[in-house]
Design a protein that fits this description.
By secondary structure, the protein is α+β, with helices and mostly antiparallel strands. Among the domains are: about 1-130, Rossmann fold; about 140-185 and about 470-580, Topoisomerase I, domain 2 (Orthogonal Bundle); about 190-255 and about 395-465, Topoisomerase I, domain 3 (Distorted Sandwich); about 260-390, Orthogonal Bundle (Topoisomerase I, domain 4), CATH 1.10.290; about 595-635, no CATH class. The relative contact order is 0.09.
Length: about 900
Amino acid sequence: MNVVVVESPAKAKTINKYLGSDYQVVASYGHVRDLPPKDGSVDPDNEFAMVWQTDAKSAKRLTDLAKMVKSADRLILATDPDREGEAISWHVLQVLKDKKALKDQPVERVVFNAITKQAVLDAMASPRAIEGDLVDAYRARRALDYLVGFNLSPVLWRKLPGARSAGRVQSVSLRLVCDREAEIERFKPQEYWSVITTLSTPGGDEFDARLATLDGKRVDRLGIKTEDEAQAVVGHLNDAAFRVASVEAKPQKRNPSPPFTTSTLQQEASRKLGFSSARTMQVAQRLYEGIDIGGETTGLITYMRTDGVQMAPEGISAIRKIVGTEYGDKFLPEKPRYYATKAKNAQEAHEAIRPTDVARKPSEMRKRLGNDEARLYDLIWKRAVASQMSSAEFERTTVDIDADRGGKTVGLRATGSVMVFEGFIKAYMEGADDVTDDDDDDNRLPAMRAEDKLDRKKVTPSQHFTEPPPRYTEATLIKKMEELGIGRPSTYTATLATLADREYVIIDKKRLVPGSKGRIVTAFLESFFEKYVEYSFTADLEEKLDAVSDGRIDWRVVLRDFWTDFSHQIAEVMEVRTTEVLDALNEDLAPLIFPARDDGSPPRECPLCKAGQLSLKNGRYGAFIGCSNYPECNFTRQLGEDPNAEAVDTGPKVLGLHPELQLEISLKTGRFGPYIEMPAEEGEKPRRASIPKGWKPEELTLEQAVSLIDLPREVGLHPESREPIQAGIGRYGPFLLHGGKYAKLESVEDVFEIGLNRAVTVIAESSDKSRFSRTPAALKALGDHPEGGAVNVREGRYGPYVNWGKINATLPKGTDPQAITLAEALPLLEAKAAKGGKKPAKKAAPKKAAAKKPAAKKTAKAAETKAAAKPKTAKAGTAKAAAKPPAKKASPAKAAPKDGDDAADDDDLPF
């Protein structure tokens, strides 16, 4: 029996049919190991030794695989034909070696670019060994990403609360978006005018001509800058005599574009189909894995993660044959077309994306495919076919016209283009709708000859203003990343998704707009890590990694050169005071956060007190703009808010006295909205409650305030348990509490109006739905906390959260619970602990035996064992030092709280 390892179960099932009963094909389900998100996973002091961790699901699959391999005749690693696929094969082999599952069985690596029977059988006939250079390049990339993310992200958490992560490619991609936004903000529109003259030939045919020369000088698009200049030209043309000075016709050719790569497919699918990059790759994956055709699953396209533009000889031959039969011999060039990759850092020689069998026409496959798959297949098929077709031929005509008045001549020019032969446009044209036989050329000029007299019909001046460069779309950003050599096909989609998930970038009508978090993170990195977000530095690093792939440089040399400077920079920035960081950001982001005001007052003058200066401030939930005169002035503004909006005094408003306690209740406004507060009774904290959603603070009465401040409200005793049922409003909305378990209420009004019978029913219904598990099963084990104890991701009643001992920290909205790392979880736990969460209780020390005294040697040995087990002290600048909360030190938010910072702190509730 031969065991074959592929990545996906769908692929395993298909390939098993191709190979027959002598083969057992199993799926690895993608990567089986990764670097655990904790300090020490990459050790720069030990030749960048890497510690790999197998997740629970993969561990079971690998155990089963090891059992199969022990009794197998041969192991064949057939993961995807790219760097990631090579790495997965290497991981699988290493795990099997560690499990001693391999004896003397041969181990072979095979790759196929398409899931078709012939492609698989051909690959099986040409096995090779795992390419060590490709694995080294993968290890170098993975180590770099770890070292950057695991060391840079904690610096952000310390210096910029609210910032969530940074990455080697992610941060440079974000900078592209932010730089474009800054360019748009700096842009100043420039006025210009165009003058169009409508003329007619002796035969009566009309056409338009533009101003070309004025006073013997060429006039470009911005040549006429004012209305007075335009009207002077109009006056001349209204009195001028027109004649044709010259007519020149030149043949032109337009060559087809190469077949798709990953990035060009994403760009065209965005332009023509409106697909996001993620959607494009999901649909392409389904086309690659194939559909059932004649009882056999067959892949419809070649591998969709590639930088290569070349096609296999058999693919070119099949396409040339279909061109001849479908379009005719005149559409088939004499020789095949061959393309060369222009993108920087292209991957190893993979084929372009093409149909596995071009005879499967889009019209026929539409019946077998879903709408998305059919449309994308149509795009891929036409692009591949067009790439082997003849050039389109045009005749471009240029007519120069003299407009003479009293010996002074103004030159006009008219241009037209006539398609002589469609060529590849018959099948497909990049960036435009498909051209058919019925399409007419709308830029054709009437027949004219030199010295022909022309009649003026009208002269039309038009005012215009230059426009700023457009914001990036996913497609244009990917194109720019490819041009600069940033990232690679397998990372484009994930990088864009991360920027959106982190709320660093907001997608508005397909345009990428940097969020305030993204602008601040980019400004911080440009100020303190400028080298590492430079486009050229990132591209040069990619070239070095490609050199590793080619075996021209040792991967550890690349890591050593990078880490020497990077670790030094990390240590330096960790010593920078937060005030210095904010000062630098105030200067760099001044156009964004302190724009000019309509009333002409200084941009940084506090609009409320007029005495303080506005500045960026750090809070528990990120940066905001506040007054330097705090606490005398409590003016705050969120980033992105209109600086010209009327400043409102958010000072406290006394609502009245509590009827029982005779304590003053005030309405206040904090950075996170309005809330009410009642002073502390003796030995207690002040009571605070947020204003519920839908309630208007300006209409709040004393009675409503008292009802809020007295929450939770006791509804009554449960008839069975005789324990009290309470109603309240928590972080996630209104709830009932009984016996330590919660049930959600439909509205805030229910909190004050619900009776005992209805409350008992709500609790019973919630219990029936099994929503009250106190300790849900772990979704993902993240590793050990620096202070000891496991950190897990669990699924709560209202979403996933991170758990460490008795501390539960809700994951931010939109976070994938399977994607979060320990490095990202630690600051969430730290923030929750700062709010009053408890650390895991330490086990009590065992009682000492009364009689015997331990021997000295044994005591020394125990101390040595304990010292060995104790985690190493983190170095300056490492993630562990950054992630571990400092002892007895308030968080920045607690050190100088604003009104409302601690309002309605109901984080202990699951709502």
